[in-house]
């Protein structure tokens, strides 16, 4: 099967053309100030991550209140984790396609399209009448949001002075933490508001999906106006939208079919997750084959690129283990209310508001001094590994305090989030500008297997052992592997490093 987003026919952009998202001489695709660009991309990350994070607290509320289509199941934690994995299967499958479409049709167009798509599908998630409808809506949400990442990273690198590139990546990515925090903290309050003021009763889980969906549509409209006023040509969303629909519909059918077959035959959740892994392997094979046939293997498939890609699997595993399950973990371990657990868990997400930009700032200082960023990445990964293991040990000790859990989550979050823009900056220097959309798309395609596997594996471990500690130790062990991989990377400094 040929992937329409990966074709390299006559319409494919070449370096230096406007359609490729690279400014031709005298015709800048983006003419605004780079800090203004940071602000709008940050807002995009906020709503994008709030849209995806809302699933975890909603599932936790259903489990706690035995409501909705999850509360009365035999293995609610495993089913909730499976829903998260289905979302990230969709999110994963559009990573490379999103980067390629951005290289061809423009990175601005793909960012606006992603936000518009995510808003509409989040609203559809709230309107879903049952489990299958909810899964389909979440899968489609993931497919649309998957194109944001690779295009966002390329725009920051292309339009930020090299001396400020990593801090720019970090500032923008801090929107991830703000969105995570909003999704974790606001969702229980929005559900209470829906149950009380709106009289939604057992359907109150829909309220946060409506609110976050509307917010995404507002940011999408604002981003469209921003980019439209600061470019050499109007944004044309029609062609990339048709390409994305043509790609997403078959992918959504495959993912939903996997879920339905698993439900019909009573497959255990771990076996369904393996099915998602098969889809990942098939997509990765198609992508790698396309890169080789296009003659870009030397630019996109060399040793250092693969070390960075595979090492980041651990980052996505830990990100979505703690993002998806931290509320439930804290609530069970400390025997607290869902609201108190959400506030405690938010320390981990909120730490990124500091960690992302500070990590980028320190890395840029090293680059300006002619030093590498790799030692910082390795140190951050080591510290997070140790603190994640300490978090697991506190769960084994029995009924830890909310203060202790919040402190560990905050400190680990500082180093964990500082790591990410540093890795992004290292990766951005491993390929030429015309290949960066594809590079980051392949990067997140590979890394997202961690996000796909983490929620369901952790949920299965919880149901099997009665404790969240095995899941925490698994996350720490996976991160320890990334320490070794990043130690082996041969970093390439920007040409303007000195």
From TrEMBL:
Region Disordered: start-end pairs: 1-25
Organism of origin: Streptomyces mexicanus
PROSITE patterns documented for this protein: MFS (PS50850)
Protein's name in the database: MFS transporter
The Major facilitator superfamily (MFS) profile domain, residue ranges: 37-494
Pfam family, one: MFS_1
GO molecular function, one term: transmembrane transporter activity
Keyword annotations from UniProtKB, A to Z: Membrane, Transmembrane, Transmembrane helix
Biased composition regions of type Low complexity, renumbered to the chain: 7-25
Lipid bilayer topology: Multi-pass membrane protein
GO cellular component: plasma membrane
Subcellular localization, as worded in the UniProt entry: Cell membrane
Signal peptide: none
Keyword Transmembrane: yes
Residues passing through the membrane, by range: 37-63, 75-94, 114-140, 167-187, 207-227, 247-267, 273-292, 304-326, 338-363, 375-396, 402-427, 439-461, 467-489
């Amino acid at each position: 099967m040929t992937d329409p987003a990966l074709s390299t026919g006559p319409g494919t952009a070449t370096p230096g053309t406007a359609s490729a998202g690279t400014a031709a001489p005298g015709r800048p695709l983006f003419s605004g100030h780079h800090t203004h660009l940071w602000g709008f991309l940050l807002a995009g990350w906020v709503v994008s991550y709030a849209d995806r994070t809302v699933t975890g607290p909603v599932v936790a509320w259903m489990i706690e209140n035995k409501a909705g289509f999850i509360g009365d199941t035999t293995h609610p934690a495993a089913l909730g984790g499976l829903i998260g994995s289905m979302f990230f299967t969709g999110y994963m499958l559009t990573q490379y396609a999103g980067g390629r479409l951005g290289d061809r049709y423009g990175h601005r167009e793909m960012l606006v399209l992603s936000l518009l798509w995510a808003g509409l599908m989040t609203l559809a998630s709230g309107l879903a009448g049952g489990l299958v409808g909810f899964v389909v809506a979440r899968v489609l949400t993931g497919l649309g949001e998957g194109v944001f990442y690779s295009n966002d990273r390329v725009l920051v690198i292309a339009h930020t002075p090299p001396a400020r590139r990593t801090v720019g990546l970090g500032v923008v990515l801090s929107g991830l933490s703000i969105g995570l925090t909003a999704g974790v903290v606001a969702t229980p309050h929005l559900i209470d508001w829906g149950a009380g003021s709106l009289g939604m009763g057992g359907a109150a889980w829909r309220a946060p999906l409506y609110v976050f969906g509307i917010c995404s549509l507002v940011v999408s409209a604002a981003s469209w106006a921003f980019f439209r006023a600061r470019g050499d040509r109007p944004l044309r969303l029609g062609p990339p939208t048709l390409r994305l629909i043509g790609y997403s519909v078959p992918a959504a059918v495959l993912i939903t079919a996997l879920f339905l077959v698993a439900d019909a035959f009573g497959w255990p959740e771990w076996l369904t997750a393996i099915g998602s892994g098969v889809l990942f392997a098939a997509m990765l094979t198609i992508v790698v084959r396309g890169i080789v046939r296009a003659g870009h293997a030397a630019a996109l498939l060399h040793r250092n690129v693969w070390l960075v890609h595979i090492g980041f699997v651990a980052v996505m595993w830990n990100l979505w283990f703690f993002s998806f399950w931290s509320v439930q973990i804290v609530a069970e371990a400390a025997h607290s209310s869902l609201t108190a657990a959400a506030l405690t868990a938010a320390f981990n997400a909120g730490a990124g508001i500091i960690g992302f930009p500070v990590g980028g700032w320190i890395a840029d200082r090293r680059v300006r001094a002619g030093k590498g960023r790799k030692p910082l990445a390795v140190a951050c990964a080591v510290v997070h590994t140790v603190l994640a293991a300490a978090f697991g040990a506190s769960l084994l000790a029995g009924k830890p305090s909310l203060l202790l859990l919040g402190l560990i989550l905050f400190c680990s979050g500082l180093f964990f989030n500082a790591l990410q823009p540093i890795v992004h900056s290292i990766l951005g220097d491993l390929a030429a500008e015309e290949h960066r959309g594809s590079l980051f798309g392949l990067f997140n395609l590979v890394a997202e297997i961690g996000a796909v596997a983490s929620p369901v594996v952790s949920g299965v471990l919880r149901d099997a052992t009665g404790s969240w500690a095995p899941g925490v130790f698994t996350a720490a062990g996976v991160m320890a592997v990334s320490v070794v991989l990043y130690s082996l990377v041969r970093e390439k400094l920007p040409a303007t490093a000195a």
